[in-house]
Amino acid sequence: MAHGDDRAISRLYDVHSPRLFGLALALVGERADAEEVVLDAFAQAWRNACTFDGSRGSVQTWLSTITRSRALDCIRRRTRRRMANERAGTESSFSVADGEATHSRDASVLDTMLHEELQAQLNGALQLLPPEQREVIELSFLSGASHARVAEQLGLPLGTVKTRARSALRKMRTVLIGATTR
Question: Where in the numbering of this chain does the RNA polymerase sigma-70 region domain appear (predicted)?
Answer without folding.
Answer: 12-81
